[in-house]
Amino acid sequence: MPMHIETLSLITAIQSLALAAMLWAGTQGNPGPARTALRLRAAALAIESAGWTMLAAQAWLHPAQLLLGGNALNLLAQGMAVVALRMLLRDSLCWRWALAVGVIGWLGVGWFGVVQPDYRLRVLWGSAAILAYIGLRIQALLHGGPRRGSRARAVLLVLCALSALLLVWRNGELWFDLQPPADIIQPATVNYLYVLLSGMQPLFLSIGFLLLYNETLQRELHQLARVDSLTGVKNRLALTETATQLLAQASRSHRTLGVLMIDADHFKDINDRFGHGGGDKVLLALVDSIRGTLRAGNVIGRVGGEEFVVLAPDTGIEQALVLAERIRETVESTPLMVDGHLLQLTVSVGATVAQPGERDVPRLLQRADGALYAAKRAGRNRVMAAGVELGARPPTHAPFPAADSL
To answer: By the 8 A CB rule, do 217 and 34 touch?
Structure first.
């Protein structure tokens, strides 16, 4: 059965347009870089479809229109696809490089197609531009964003390699064939195979892109499920997972892990007076104060309400108590402005330390919680751990709400 370049091109154009419509329809949801990347990829497919349509309609076009217009659409689509992939991978977009490659590639193709016609040099020049785009894709796949265990990256890397081999094969056929075709629309085996295999790329590359998009969404959902929506710190689930990992590391290295349980004193009074909006502002300020006292490697998380936990690797009980006192003093000495009222917040802190070999996270947190409530019972605004009390102070402020001190 004879093949026709026009028929193959039309099939590819329809396929690319259908893929573009499906990708665009699949971008419903919350806006974000992943959705923008998928829409950009869909737009690139639509432009690529227009280029294939021009090749299918070559009988009705002037050769210069087909040459300049078709290659412009193809290079534009390639550049947009590169930017979309790098956006999805949260890598630098390199859009200036993509634009430069497209413009230089189009000018070279135009020169060897119109000014100084040479089909083999024209194909070589255009292939070099597309290979540059493939290189930008590969660079992003190898170095952009999280890479561990990504099957979609592996699929896309293989497809990029196959695309590069296809270009090398086509140029080799043109340069070493004794009677190479004079144009892409001329009936020839190399042209049939190139159009056929090139027409399959949008489908496979889109599948790889969708796999990567799905991995990105799953990773984002995984992160969102582990972040406290108000304060941006780890939530109870993430804190438990992190504590489990740190306990395992401490056990392997025979080191300790300090744990602090922190609770804002009289926080119910704040909510009663200023509402939950005012309470949220206080919690955000509290998190900022705590973060300002932590060192690299310390982890903060919210376990509920106004309670927070700090995990301090390689920290003994003395160091944990010093850190807890530093947090208490910092919070106490940092006035807060809420709805025009100056407040002085205080916290109670319970401290404990996981010994090497300890793996029970709930029991560890329970010990810190017990020390916290001991500090609460002792009068608040103090640090306690395993019967040890540091910085214990009787309340020096009038009870809220008679005054703005807490």
So the answer is: yes
Task: Give the tens place of pLDDT for each residue, 188-232.
Answer: 888 888 888 898 999 999 999 999 988 888 888 888 888 998 999
- The CATH architecture assigned to 236-390 reads 2-Layer Sandwich (3.30)
Q: Which two tokens stand for residue 331?
A: 């919070």
* Residue range 5-224, CATH number: 1.20.1070
Residue 221 identity (one-letter amino acid): L
Q: What is the pLDDT of residues 130-180, one digit of tens each?
A: 999 999 999 999 987 766 568 899 999 999 999 999 999 999 988 988 777
The reply to whether 236-390 shares the fold of 5-224 is no
Which residue is it, tokens 């009068």? 379
| pLDDT value at 29 more than 70 | no
Q: What is the DSSP letter of 313?
A: E
Integer Cα distance of 272 and 292 in angstroms: 28
Which residues in 272-283 are b (16+ Cβ under 10 Å) and which e?
A: ebbeeebbebbb
Q: Where are the domains of the chain?
A: 5-224, 236-390
Q: If DSSP states are collapsed to H, E and C, what string results for 341-378?
A: EEEECCEEEEEEEECCCCCCHHHHHHHHHHHHHHHHHC
With vertex at residue 73, the alpha carbon angle to CA 68 and CA 75, rounded to the nearest 5 degrees, is 95
Q: What is the pTM of this model?
A: 0.73
